[in-house]
Write a structure and sequence with these properties.
This protein has about 350 residues and is an alpha+beta fold. It has one domain. About 35% of the residues lie in helices and about 20% in strands. The protein is built from 10 helices and 15 strands. The radius of gyration is 20 Å and the shape is globular.
Length: about 350
């Protein structure tokens, strides 16, 4: 097992020297959000700690197909919405927040293309739900849950610890044009870094890492809590230093969803056992192809399935991405809550 890099050790030392954790900021933001709500809204958004049914009530499916519970975005005022966004900003990194919001906005782009229409299925930013499971606390376990079609964030806070697993990191459409006319690819950097890594492997390494010519669907998606996957593909121990760095860069897109403090700690946890981390691929290695990749380690599962023509739809189907981020040892902060 390789030791942590000097840069990572320096970063962790700086984090340890900082007196406050992010938990007080998250709790303060959550309390401020709750204060903006009516009694009826608070009743809708708050669930008891230990409500397993609500904890697991998330899906990539759109409204009308999957029944969510909580407070719906379209039923909130602008002030209430801004208060909620402050909770997300306190929990996530700047890059993580921007990524999640870009995924979310894609659903408005999908609705603008004629999908849904307010009935079934329901597409658009208004059909995302917020739930708080347990009361916001600096010491006791609690969770906030936000999500809808193709993206869900489950943030569980236990004292100074934060877990963002399991979260669904997907998008449809994969590419869209924003209000300023700019092209947006919310997960484009992830896909680019994945193709760069698989094409950096030599022929022998690719024979180990590339497992099939066709992509598959994610395996540990919604409703798959508690299941595990055996490592498959090429281990980081068989990679060069540059390839290992590329693998860690790919992983950071997920571990770095969390705020800087928690994201650095999570990245260091994965890096410490990088030799036990595996990378696998299904599908062509030509950029732009429909593909599936997986990263598995002792505390990590990442799945990414880019779907489109030839992978889950006809030629007219907008491309879309299914993806999951889990920690088999710490989904919903199970390890911290013991």
């Amino acid at each position: 097992m390789k030791t942590l890099s000097a840069l990572t050790l320096l970063l962790l030392s700086a984090i340890a020297a900082a007196s406050p954790t992010t938990t007080p900021r998250i709790v303060a933001a959550a309390d401020a959000f709750l204060a903006t709500l009516t009694d009826a809204q608070r009743s809708s958004v708050q669930f008891a700690q230990g409500d397993t049914a609500q904890k697991q009530r998330w899906s990539n499916l759109p409204g009308g197909v999957f029944q969510r519970a909580g407070l719906r975005w379209t039923d909130m005022s602008e002030a209430q919405r801004n208060a909620w966004l402050a909770v997300m900003q306190a929990t996530l990194s700047d890059a993580g927040y921007d990524r999640v919001v870009a995924e979310w906005r894609a659903d408005d782009a999908l609705a603008a293309r004629g999908a849904g229409g307010g009935r079934s299925p329901q597409f658009g930013m208004g059909f995302y739900y917020i739930a708080l499971i347990g009361a916001p606390s600096k010491t006791e376990p609690w969770q906030w849950q936000w999500g809808g079609h193709h993206v869900t964030i489950n943030a569980t806070i236990v004292g100074p610890n934060l877990a963002l697993t399991p979260s669904y990191i997907g998008v449809e459409p994969a590419t869209y044009t924003d209000a300023n006319g700019a092209t947006v690819r919310p997960l484009g950097d992830i896909e680019s870094d994945a193709f760069a890594l698989v094409n950096w492997l030599d022929a022998d390494q690719q024979r180990v890492a590339v497992l099939a010519e066709a992509p598959i669907e994610v395996v540990l998606g919604p409703g798959r809590d508690g299941r595990t996957l055996d490592p498959e593909g090429l281990s980081a121990a068989r990679m060069t230093a540059d390839q290992r760095a590329a693998l860690l860069r790919l992983v950071r897109h997920y571990t770095g969803l969390a705020n800087d403090e928690d994201g650095a700690a999570r990245t260091a946890e994965v890096e410490q056992r990088l030799d036990e981390t595996y990378f696998s691929w299904r599908g062509p290695t030509t950029p732009g192809s429909a593909i599936y990749f997986r990263v598995t380690g002792p505390t990590l599962v990442i799945e990414y399935a880019a779907q489109g023509p030839g992978a889950g739809g006809g030629a007219r189907t907008p491309s879309h991405i299914h993806g999951i981020y889990r920690d088999p040892t710490n989904d919903y902060a199970a390890r911290y809550a013991r």
